[in-house]
Amino acid sequence: MTPMLEAKGLVRRYAMRRGLMGRSVEVRAVDGVSLSVERGRTLGLVGESGCGKSTTGRLVLGLEAPDAGSVAFQDKPMPPPGTDAWRALRSRMQMVFQDPLGALDRRLPIGAQVQEPLDIHRIGEAKDRAGRAMEALRAVGLRPDQAARYPHELSGGQRQRAVLARALATEPALLVCDEPISALDVSIQAQVMNLLMDQQERLGLGILFISHDLRAVRQVSHRVAVMYLGTIVEEGEPDAVLHEPAHPYAQALVSAIPHPGRSGQRIVLQGDPPNPADRPSGCAFHPRCPVATALCARETPVLKPRRGDGRLVACHVVQGDVAPAVTRKAA
Ligand SMILES: Nc1ncnc2c1ncn2[C@@H]1O[C@H](COP(=O)(O)OP(=O)(O)OP(=O)(O)O)[C@@H](O)[C@H]1O
Ligand SMILES: [Mg+2]
Q1: The domain that contains 34 carries what CATH number?
Q2: Of 22, 48, 181, 245, which sits 20 to 30 A from 144 (CA to CA)?
């Protein structure tokens, strides 16, 4: 069965100015990302701030055109952004944006905003749409009387839920959730996660779930991909990747999660956080990697199945191309 969404070799570059008067340099925000999302399945996407997660989310929905690579949705190439063919697909693919205030129209009450895509895409009978919008708000834990409020009259968490209600109201086939729960308190987080999983089961919704919260990712995902500086460095089953990460970066990321009762050291990464405008040669992680060798500085490792368990890893050391350098002392 072909996946609902298939992205191959996505690249997105931005021009970024260095300093106020500086000349502009090229930032490779996404640098060769391939991923797929199956019907009724969730792919979790994790990685530190600035590694290109949100850009990847926008690229797979065609909200931005990639500089290289391709996206296929339901077996057809994604039409160019802004074309009629692309607009016709929009109700089938929704995004819950990281910044809910930026995603909402400040001049319109949220009830009307949840109803708007139903009107635009003529979903259901006209007379039922207001009720359907109310139902979507209720499902994310907002009260009917809050439908009349404007975005600035809501808290950050309530706005986030309004954005989610709007995305789910059209009953999309594919949902990209960019940090959908980070602004919510714990009880609402659980409610929203359950709602996503219910919709997935009911409608076969495919989800790309972008989050810093590795525990949430583990809870909702069927597969998880770890990103570092614009590329995927490890991908596999959430229990495997988040329990026994193979890539040294994934190990550091996972070891940073506080875990009551867990033994084992926290790995504190050496070196500066990565700068996409000044990408290291070879494996982009090598200056911070405790086991990097000369080969890692020279050659970019390819994401490929590891012998034995088939987990996808982009690392010369893990793949056995080279023996690890003597491990620097973990802090
Ligand atoms: N429109 C843009 N113009 C210029 N640079 C951009 C633009 N959007 C993103 N970038 C840069 O691309 C890189 C990746 O950004 P992106 O927003 O995809 O990261 P992210 O992984 O979502 O981070 P976070 O976890 O903080 O949300 C960053 O270095 C960012 O500064
Ligand atoms: Mg982001």
Answers
A1: 3.40.50.300
A2: 181
C-alpha 192 to ligand 2 mean position (Å): 19
Q: Could you tell me what percent of the chain has a pLDDT over 70?
A: 95
CA of 27 to the centre of ligand 1 (A): 9
Pocket of ligand 1 (CB under 6 A): 14, 16, 27, 29, 49-55, 98, 276
Give me the residue label for tokens 């199945």: 305
Examine the domain organization and report whether 198 and 266 are in the same domain: no
Q: What are the DSSP E strand ranges found in 127-230?
A: 174-178, 206-210, 223-228
Q: Are residues 22 and 56 in the same domain?
A: yes
Q: Which amino acid is at 115?
A: Q
CB 146, CB 185: distance < 8 Å: no
Q: Tell me, yes or no, whether 217 and 269 share the same domain.
A: no
Question: Which of 24, 48, 49, 55 to mutate to test ligand 1, by most ligand atoms within 8 A of the CB atom?
Answer: 55
Contacts of 212 (CB under 8 A, 6+ apart): 46, 49, 179, 182
Domains: count for the chain: 2
DSSP 8-class letter at 184: S
* Domain hosting residue 208, numbered range: 5-106+155-225
Q: How many CA atoms lie within 13 A of 71 on its CB side?
A: 25
137-178 confidence digits (pLDDT tens):
998 889 989 999 999 999 888 888 899 999 999 889 999 999
30-44, 88-102, 266-280: range with lowest mean pLDDT: 266-280
What is the average per-residue pLDDT within 293-297?
A: 95
92 with 191, same domain? yes
Residue nearest to atom 5 of ligand 1 (CA): 14
Mutate to test the pocket of ligand 1, among 11, 26, 27 (most ligand atoms within 8 A of CB): 27
Q: Is 253 found in the same domain as 221?
A: no
Give the pLDDT score at 331.
41
